[in-house]
């Protein structure tokens, strides 16, 4: 773990904190019950640590390690847990009450889609088939309904740079051609750049060039580098580095102890537990699934710093990308052939 916790500076910068998060994750062994109290403590601590993306990501990463696959164990559990707690406490300027979340941006306000505009292939900023709507009561609360009938998305009016985005979603029952019998599919696109529809050369595509946090049965938390076009026909793509291993079939899978590689041009980085037997079929569930079964609510957090993007599904860190070439842009929630309900879209500036 490097320097003893007691000798670490009281406050570390964002870059230093971020650099420690993934290596620390690798020390834990999965399914150790003695880690659960620490996990709870760290989740409580995350809002005391100066509110930075790095602190939040560090706390959540460590807390979720009790449920994450791990690759290394180089220290005794008791000594390791003590060191980690001392390290985290050394960062906190005292332990004030949990930070007030008064600066949250409710991109879904529970009433309408006023934070977004719609975009669909062929229909562009019109929605004649009501692909996007607000339903008054889904499991007792209002929610955005995305029918999936046409490909496109709801796009934020504003651009965002550094934040923690919390999206709560569950699948509906309706699917549409050409994905009627395929895995339910959607996604959250961040750092969207360029003109609407630029994933198509004639700007009639469904989305914008961006970095996608995938939402698909069996693959929630994958990263995709979504390409797009400029008016002169130049094709552009975001780039991002991720530590990876190759699975049985030679696909890239996120592993914090793996080999760093730059991904671009439509590359996908599978989440850490993606089943190599994944098939594109309705209702697919892998052997180590973190996503809840269809019909149950999931929480996807996307923690965005300038040098790092972290996907957290239901409290588990499932993917981390480093040094993204895009660091700012709009946010899109996709319509991609499957009905999906979204009851929460909250953005916390600066990752608080």
From TrEMBL:
An MF annotation (GO) of this entry? hydrolase activity
- Recorded superkingdom: Bacteria
**3-keto-alpha-glucoside-1,2-lyase/3-keto-2-hydroxy-glucal hydratase domain: which residues?**
105-345
Q: Which Pfam families match?
A: 3keto-disac_hyd
Q: What is this protein called?
A: 3-keto-alpha-glucoside-1,2-lyase/3-keto-2-hydroxy-glucal hydratase domain-containing protein
This protein's species is: Luteitalea pratensis
């Amino acid at each position: 773990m490097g320097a003893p916790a007691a000798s670490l500076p009281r406050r570390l910068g964002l870059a230093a904190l971020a650099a420690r998060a993934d290596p620390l994750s690798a020390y834990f062994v999965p399914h150790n019950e003695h880690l659960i109290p620490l996990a709870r403590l760290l989740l409580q601590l995350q809002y005391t640590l100066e509110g930075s993306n790095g602190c939040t990501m560090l706390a959540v990463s460590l807390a979720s390690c009790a449920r994450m696959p791990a690759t290394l164990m180089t220290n005794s559990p008791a000594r390791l847990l003590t060191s980690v707690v001392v390290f985290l406490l050394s960062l906190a300027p005292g332990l004030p009450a949990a930070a007030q979340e008064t600066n949250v941006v409710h991109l879904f306000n529970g009433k309408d889609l006023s934070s977004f505009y719609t975009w669909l292939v062929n229909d562009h900023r019109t929605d004649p088939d009501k692909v996007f709507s607000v339903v008054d009561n889904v499991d007792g609360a209002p929610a955005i309904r995305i029918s999936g009938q046409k490909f496109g998305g709801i796009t934020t009016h504003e651009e965002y740079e550094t934040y923690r985005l919390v999206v709560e979603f569950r699948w509906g029952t309706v699917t549409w051609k050409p994905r009627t019998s395929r895995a339910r599919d959607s996604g959250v696109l961040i750092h969207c750049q360029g003109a609407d529809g630029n994933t198509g050369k004639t700007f009639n595509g469904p989305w914008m060039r961006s970095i996608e946090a995938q939402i698909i049965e069996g693959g929630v938390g994958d990263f995709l580098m979504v390409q797009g076009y400029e008016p002169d026909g130049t094709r552009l793509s975001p780039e991002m580095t991720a530590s990876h291993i190759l699975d049985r079939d030679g696909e890239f899978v996120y592993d914090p102890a793996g080999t760093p590689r730059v991904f671009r041009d439509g590359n996908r980085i599978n989440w850490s537990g993606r089943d190599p037997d994944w098939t594109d079929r309705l209702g697919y569930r892998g052997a180590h699934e973190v996503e809840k079964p269809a019909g149950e609510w999931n929480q996807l957090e996307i923690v965005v710093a300038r040098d790092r993007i972290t996907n957290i599904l239901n409290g588990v860190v499932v993917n981390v990308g480093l040094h993204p070439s895009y660091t700012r842009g709009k946010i899109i929630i996709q319509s991609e052939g499957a009905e999906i309900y979204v009851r929460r879209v909250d953005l916390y500036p600066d990752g608080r």
